[in-house]
Specification:
The complex is a heteropentamer of chains A (151), B (177), C (387), D (615) and E (209). By secondary structure, chain B is an alpha+beta fold. Chain B has helices at 2-12, 34-44, 102-112, 144-151, 163-171; strands at residues 15-21, 24-29, 49-58, 63-72, 77-86. In chain C, helix 4 runs antiparallel to helix 11 (271-295) and helix 6 packs antiparallel against helix 11. The chains are: A mainly alpha (151), B alpha+beta (177), C alpha+beta (387), D alpha/beta (615), E alpha/beta (209). At the C-D interface, helix 2, helix 5, helix 6 and helix 7 of C face helix 1, helix 3 and helix 4 of D. Strand 5 of chain D pairs antiparallel with strand 5 of chain E, so a sheet runs across the interface.
């Protein structure tokens, strides 16, 4: 898999974000009570926002994301990868799913950046990886402050 | 010293002997016997030295408690002799003939408490005050601060805050009902 | 040349001079007058240059301490009491603190006992040094005060080093004292004591062996021994009449029982005798200070624990604590009704007697020029009369 | 008179050649002594504006004024002492009494001005030439007017304590309590730190005065759980205590307990207020924990009729099921709850909202609903193997202990977590005869548990393993296979990865440990159970928390906007009773006293809302 | 007595017996009229170099005057010396708190001083009452009763502070800014009213010179 142009790379990224929106939509279908739904809707809206942002970038033809990756709290890698999608999923389950999803996305972009031969595209993927790391970090901090209060 | 207490009780209806220290005791006597007791203490018991005379305003009981403190220099013992006189009509025998300095104390009693000692020299002259037109100031019902605030101007511009009230106003004003 | 030809009027009822006769002159000495101790006044009636009648007027310094103390909490009174006798504040602090401790049942540590004794003796010395300048000055002898005021200042420097204050030391706090001595302090004290002693030797030569001083002071203000109890005279004024009476010995408070000293006693009971006796007491002070430094424990706490000063409630009771100050019996009568404030605090200052009853009697028949000298020889401080 | 009297005075001519006494330049040459009591200095950073200096000052020379750059915050009133040198007598009692030791005096003493108005300033805030002077009066070493050591609380011996469930802390005697109460300076800085804003100086003063009834009355003004809070409160007040800035803080919690212990339940009614009139309104409270019952108490005082729904068989919530009895004996808790019930509050025990009765039903039957359901669901370890049968959850273990069920923890127990639940679980395991390791991801000083609890747990024999990152739970192999679980954890070091944030534990490569345990108790945190709130309730939630206004009322989604097309019209929010929420469910502090404060606050909110609705 | 209304005009030495009124002045004080330019500067310089203090120890502050006037601090070398009578003095040192009884004497002594005259108030009690803020017998602000040129705060102010205060006073005098006595003349009735409010047995002339 190699991407040689800006548009190709961004198309991939937009596709990923759209898939993320779908990910939360799927979870929403499973949700059984109001609290779950409000969180999932909030996260889905975030991803929708990302789609819009990337689409705008693609239209302007210039990537405007920071290249600085967030500090890795090394939390995501430890978390149990087991599937959390159930009707009784707790806030913890939803957050773990979200963190894992961001982690997977970040890994993918990192791999693509490593594989890219065109310097421009490489940079795009690096920046996208950094962006995903910031998203992951956001969820990780939420996890630390809301879930893992006592450890 | 308890012998002295007994003698005082027998002769002068004294009561309430209290040994505060080994060299200090107090006892209460009827106000009418003040001069007798002090003269007796001075002449018969060796309490020749008068340390001071003062009074306590026991406004709750409606009395002034006079305190005569005398010392026996031979036994190094001091005795505080108490006598209650009613606040409405505070009069007590003068002891200025027993001790030459007593009249000054009695003048002070007159000015500071309004306690009269008939016969005491210059008792009605002003002592430390001048032009005083209030209650005798050592009475408990004279409020020094109120008088001072009403009479003497203060430099304005001072304001203070109570920490708890200030913190409430700053940090959680909504808790105010 | 003896001045005992000066008329001594035997105790008698006071004559009331007829001021309208034109024979007498009414004259106020004080409050604004260089020949008065502190801020007080004498209303003199003079005939020629002889005083025939005198009334002491006080109250110029009346601040109402005894009333104010009833308004303040027990600990808040601690800074207040020292102001009652300005030149000699420490005795107030001691008497008040001791009374409070007695009523509350607080034992003060050994070290505090010694530091209190030490500071009281130092205070006594400073007070005498102030007096001696006044005594010499009142007889027209201006040199002595130039020396003694400086000596006193050196002693005040010692106080400043120990307590942080020159005049008002506020050192003897209820429960003990406010701090241990700073490093090298006693060495400094001993140096100052040597200086003061040397200076006192000079003063003795210049003042006590001065014909003018002797002439004017001898025979002036004779107090007969039988007046001592009748007038309640205490301190050096009593001792100069041959009455051996010193509360430091009689009551044995603080560390005095462990110090070696004998009360200085005189016999002639006139102004010169009293001055001589006070000079000897100054030497005695220096000796006692040196003894204190030798005997004082080097280590140990200097203050006992006391209750929270904001809410200190003293058990109901009353006591009278007296101490021997430079003028005689200084005492605090403290009454507690069990609340956070004193019920009554009465202060017994020796000047109360000396400056009013005794002074009014002694000054009769005295030459107007000697009134100031006589008053100083009784060593009176007006602030402790009126409080 | 002899010849010496004429000659002797001349002898001192010899002094004419000695150095004169006169100081050449007195103003410049003589600084105050090192201890001189000169003008005030104040370390305004250290000062907390408690006003003890103002209280001791007999001259009323000190005012507390707001100081630029120092805002009011917990443990700091934001005020600073301002000295009036038209009053000051330089006694330095303010320096002696200053709890934090921030006040001092310089050795400067010259201040001259023609304008008498200038002699006032705030030391440390308004710059003065003598600021920071190293010389001048300071409180002497070993000399304090205030007692810096607290009266030690008598406790059971730890070796003995760990054998029983008897209450560890024995409580103060009268003499001890009065002595401890006497340490307080009544500054009131603590009040802001207490979530319930209890009148702490007031009730401490009641202890000092020996007036327990007044003390109890003051306690109940803001807190109907004095017995419980007197034992297990997180006592944030003590962190703000002015005395604590220079010594041990006043034992506010123990004094509260002392008051509550002194008054018999039968006498409560004589002291405490009751509702004046019945309002005729009915309120439902969901959850009989401290928050729910606190709301119930204050609602009952306002004359409302209150029914509390509790899913468990006993009331008390976490106070009963989360806190072991050696910390909070059941009789003490029953006393608090008993008094609330005596006011006519009905507690429906064993009635879970959501299953036994629907929220919507409550909303139609009652005039208002208060949710105080707390955080009953433990979060899982979230490592591979965390569903292993030997992995237990801390909250469940504690609840089982309360119910008297056999715990079956075994001989060797690992507790994962550093909060109070972890400590309680560890100490419960100790009392069941287990050897306990507490594994915590960060350092001891980072542990969120109460320092007392950590100290006591360790004293009772638990061993604390710091910086242990859980990795995995596996079945043990060999002889112990099936009976024990293998807990795999990685040793960590604390790394400061970002400035301004707390350090992060980072696994040390290779330092992996595997230890076999009979039980592994996970106590990493708890979450709410909100499954009883349906979408039709239209209550606004965000991240598993109700969105509430200042009085705890849950915002309601506008009709239609979020409503599903098929929702029944009868559930229109404007018709149904308002829902309020508080306690752990809503606030970030997650302790009993915050829940109590929320309950009190919501009771006032509900009352107001009913008023508005009624009129 | 406190309720007695004080009639301010005309001031006629009401407190005195008739036959004594003639002994006192019957016009209020006047403001000082400075000489022209350099001459006044010279006067001010001269005044500042000879501060003669009235020897009246009104309060505890007097105790630090004695070290000041003796050898250790030797204020004579700064041109400062005590005088026995108000007629010879130019500086009045208010030594701390003033009781009402003393205030009466302060007023009288101050008014008897020849102009130009200056007042130095030492101690916190003179500024705002000091530790006697709640006493029934001490005034709180001396500037209500007589004008003050310089304040020295402290309790006690040390002799050095007093010296520094006198140096400050010298500067003020030299700069021609010592307005105290003019203030008194200008607001004479206000001062009298204040004085009479606290001095209850007013038995002295209103014009004490």
């Amino acid at each position: 898999m190699d991407f040689s142009t800006f548009d190709e790379a961004l198309d991939l990224a937009i596709g990923r974000e759209a898939a993320a929106v779908q990910f939360y939509t799927d979870l929403l279908a499973l949700a059984s009570f109001a609290a779950q739904k409000s969180v999932l809707e909030e996260f889905r809206a975030m991803e929708t926002g990302h789609v819009t942002m990337l689409t705008n970038i693609r239209m302007r033809g210039r990537i405007e994301l920071s290249a600085t990756a967030a500090v890795d709290l090394a939390l995501a890698r430890r978390l149990d990868a087991e599937d959390k999608a159930t009707a009784v999923m707790s806030f913890q389950d939803i957050l773990v799913s979200a963190i894992k999803k961001e982690e997977r996305a970040g890994d993918l972009y990192a791999d693509l950046a490593a594989a890219a031969s065109v310097p421009e595209v490489k940079e795009i993927f690096q920046r996208l990886a950094a962006e995903e790391s910031r998203h992951r970090r956001y969820f990780e901090e939420l996890y630390e402050s809301e879930i893992s209060r006592d450890n | 010293m308890n012998e002295l207490a007994e003698r005082l009780a027998r002769r002068y209806d004294a009561e309430g002997w209290h040994e505060q220290r080994k060299d200090l005791a107090s006892i209460s006597i009827p106000a009418l016997r003040v001069r007798d007791v002090l003269a007796w203490l001075r002449d018969e018991e060796g309490y020749k030295h008068l340390s001071f005379i003062t009074a306590i305003d026991n406004i709750e009981r409606g009395v002034f408690t006079l305190t005569y403190t005398v010392r026996n220099h031979d036994t190094k013992h001091s005795l505080m002799v108490h006598a209650d006189i009613i606040r409405e009509n505070p009069v007590v025998d003068s002891v200025h003939l027993l001790w030459e300095q007593a009249w000054t104390y009695q003048r002070e009693l007159k000015e500071w408490f309004g306690i009269d000692c008939p016969g005491s020299p210059r008792k009605d002259e002003e002592f430390v005050l001048e032009g005083w037109d209030q209650l005798p100031m050592m009475r408990r019902d004279f409020d020094s601060l109120a008088y001072s605030n009403a009479t003497y101007a203060e430099r304005p511009g001072r304001v203070t805050h109570d920490p708890a009230a200030y913190m409430k106003a700053q940090l959680y004003p909504e808790a105010d009902q | 040349m003896k001045r005992d030809r000066m008329p001594y009027i035997p105790p008698a009822e006071r004559a009331t001079p007829d001021l309208d006769s034109g024979k007498y002159l009414l004259m106020w000495q004080g409050p604004q007058h260089p020949g008065i101790t502190g801020n007080m006044s004498l209303r003199l009636v003079i005939e020629g240059d002889t005083v025939v009648d005198c009334e002491t007027h006080v109250g110029y310094l009346h601040r109402g301490f005894e009333k104010l103390m009833e308004r303040r909490s027990w600990m808040q009174n601690f800074p207040l009491v020292c102001r009652i006798a300005v030149p000699e504040p420490d005795f107030n602090e001691y008497c008040y603190a001791a009374a409070l401790e007695e009523l509350s049942g607080i034992q003060i540590p050994e070290k505090a006992v010694w530091l209190r004794t030490f500071s009281l003796e130092l205070m006594r010395l400073a007070s005498y040094l102030m007096w001696i300048g006044g005594q010499a000055g009142s007889f027209g002898h201006g040199t002595i005060i130039q020396w003694s005021a400086t000596m006193r200042d050196y002693v005040l420097d010692l106080f400043e080093e120990l307590t942080g204050g020159r005049i008002y030391h506020m050192y003897i706090i209820p429960g003990g004292v406010r701090g241990d001595v700073p490093a090298g302090y006693f060495k400094h004290v001993l140096e100052v004591m040597d200086t003061v002693q040397k200076n006192l030797d000079d003063i003795e030569l210049v003042m006590y062996h001065n014909a003018v001083f002797k002439l004017r002071a001898e025979g002036l203000g004779y107090i007969p021994p039988d007046w001592i109890d009748r007038y309640g005279i205490t301190g050096p004024n009593a001792r100069a009449a041959g009455i051996k009476r010193d509360l430091r010995k009689d009551l044995g408070y603080l560390a005095y029982p462990q110090l070696e000293f004998q009360p200085v006693v005189g016999s002639k009971s006139d102004a010169f005798e009293r001055a001589r006796l006070r000079l000897q007491e100054m030497y005695q002070c220096i000796d006692l200070i040196r003894q204190c430094i030798d005997l004082m424990p080097k280590e140990g706490p200097f203050r006992a624990k006391t209750p929270n000063p904001l809410y200190w409630k003293v058990p109901a009771g009353e006591t009278y604590v007296a101490a021997e100050c430079t003028r005689g019996e200084y005492g605090f009568y403290v009454v507690s009704d069990g609340s956070e404030k004193p019920r009554r605090v009465a202060v017994r200052g020796p000047s109360y007697t000396h400056a009013v009853s005794v002074m009014e009697r002694l000054v009769r028949g005295v030459n107007i020029a000697d009134v100031a000298g006589l008053m100083v020889s009784l060593h009176t401080y007006p602030p402790e009369i009126e409080r | 008179m002899d010849i010496k009297d004429f000659i002797a005075p001349f002898a001192v001519w010899k002094r004419a050649f000695e150095k004169p006494f006169t100081v050449k330049k007195p103003i410049d040459e003589r600084p105050g002594a090192p201890r001189y009591r000169g003008f005030h200095i104040n370390d305004a950073q250290k000062c907390i504006g408690c006003g003890t200096c103002e209280a001791i000052c007999m001259n009323k020379a000190i005012d507390l004024v707001p100081a630029a750059g120092y805002a009011a915050k917990e443990g700091d009133s934001g005020l600073r002492p301002r000295v009036d040198y038209g009053r000051c007598c330089w006694c330095a009692l303010c320096v002696d009494v200053c709890p934090s030791g921030s006040l001092g005096m310089s050795n400067e003493y010259v201040w001259i001005d023609s304008d008498p108005e200038v002699f006032r300033y705030t030391p440390g805030v308004e710059a003065k030439p003598w600021d920071g002077s190293p010389l001048g009066y300071r409180r002497a070493e070993g000399y304090r007017l205030l007692e810096e050591q607290r009266v030690e609380m008598p406790e059971l011996d730890y070796k003995e304590a760990v054998q029983t469930f008897l209450e560890l802390v024995r409580g103060y005697s009268r003499q001890q309590a009065e002595k401890e109460a006497d340490r307080c300076v009544s500054c009131g800085v603590c009040i802001a730190s207490c979530p319930a804003h209890m009148d702490i100086p007031g009730y401490i003063n009641a202890v000092r005065e020996g007036d327990m009834q007044n003390g109890l009355r003051l306690l109940y003004e803001t807190n109907p759980f004095p017995e419980a809070c007197g034992r297990i409160c997180t006592h944030r007040c003590e962190e703000a205590c002015a005395i604590g800035t220079g010594g041990d803080p006043v034992a506010i919690r123990w004094l509260k307990r002392y008051i509550a212990d002194q008054v018999e339940l039968a006498d409560y009614g004589k002291v405490l207020p009751r509702a004046e009139a019945d309002s005729g309104k009915k309120i439902a409270v969901v959850g009989a924990g401290p928050g729910g019952l606190s709301a119930a108490y204050y609602l009952a005082l306002l004359g409302h009729s209150v029914t509390v729904f509790e899913k468990d068989s006993e009331a008390g919530g976490m106070l009963r099921y989360g806190i072991p009895e050696y910390r909070l004996p059941y009789p003490a808790l029953d006393k608090d709850i008993g008094y609330i019930e005596s006011l006519g509050v009905k507690i429906e025990r064993g009635t879970a909202v959501g299953s036994a009765v629907a929220l919507a039903e409550l909303r139609s039957r009652f005039d208002a609903v208060y949710l105080s359901t707390g955080l009953p669901a433990a979060y899982s370890l979230e490592v591979p193997g965390d569903k292993h049968p030997r992995v237990l959850d801390g909250v469940a273990v504690l609840a089982a202990a309360t119910r008297g069920e056999p715990l079956g923890l075994g001989k060797r127990v690992a507790v994962v977590g550093g909060g109070n639940v972890a400590m309680d679980a560890a100490r419960t395991a100790l009392r069941n005869g287990a050897a306990v390791d507490i594994l915590y991801r960060r350092r001891k000083e980072d542990m969120p548990a109460d320092p007392d609890e950590i100290r006591e747990a360790i004293a009772e024999g638990a061993s604390l393993v710091e910086k242990a990152i859980p990795l995995e739970v596996r079945d043990a192999a060999g002889a112990i296979a099936g009976k024990q679980a293998l807990f795999v954890w990685n040793e960590a070091r604390m790394v400061q990865k970002e400035d301004g944030k707390r350090p992060v534990p980072e696994a040390i490569p290779g330092a992996v440990h595997e230890d076999p345990y009979d039980s592994i108790i996970a106590a990493i945190g708890q979450g709410p159970d909100l499954s009883f709130i349906g979408e039709a309730d239209r209550l606004e939630l965000r991240r598993f928390k109700p969105v509430v206004d200042g009085f705890g009322r849950i915002a309601e989604a506008a009709a239609g906007a979020a409503a599903e097309p098929g929702a029944p019209a009868s559930a229109s929010p404007s018709k149904a009773a308002a829902v309020f929420a508080g306690g752990d469910l809503v606030n970030d502090r997650k302790d009993a006293i915050s829940a109590i404060a929320d309950g009190h606050h919501a009771a006032q909110g509900i009352d107001r809302w009913l008023d508005r609705k009624g009129s | 007595m406190s309720s007695k209304k004080i009639e301010m005009a005309p001031l006629a030495n009401e407190g005195l017996p008739l036959e004594e009124r003639a002994l006192f002045c019957d016009v209020p004080p006047r403001e000082y009229e400075p000489a022209r330019g350099v001459i006044e500067d010279f006067y001010n310089w001269a005044r500042s170099q000879s501060l003669w203090i009235l020897g009246f120890g009104t309060g505890c502050g007097a105790i630090e005057l004695r070290p000041l006037m003796t050898s250790r601090f030797d204020m004579y070398r700064f041109g400062i010396q005590p005088r026995a009578t108000p007629r010879q003095s130019s500086v009045f040192v208010i030594g701390g708190y003033a009781s009402v009884k003393t205030l009466k004497r302060i007023v009288r002594s101050y008014e008897q001083m020849m102009g130009p005259k200056f007042v130095v108030a030492l101690g916190s009690c003179t500024i705002n009452g000091g530790m006697y803020w709640d006493s029934y017998n001490t005034i709180k602000r001396i500037d209500q009763y007589i004008p003050v040129d310089t304040y020295i705060t402290g309790c006690m102010p040390r002799p050095e502070a007093l010296l520094a205060g006198f140096q400050e006073l010298k500067k003020i005098i030299r700069a021609g800014r010592a307005e105290g006595q003019n203030l008194y003349a200008r607001n004479f009735e206000w001062y009298k009213e204040n004085q009479k409010k606290v001095i209850k047995d007013w038995n002295m002339p209103d014009y004490n010179w």
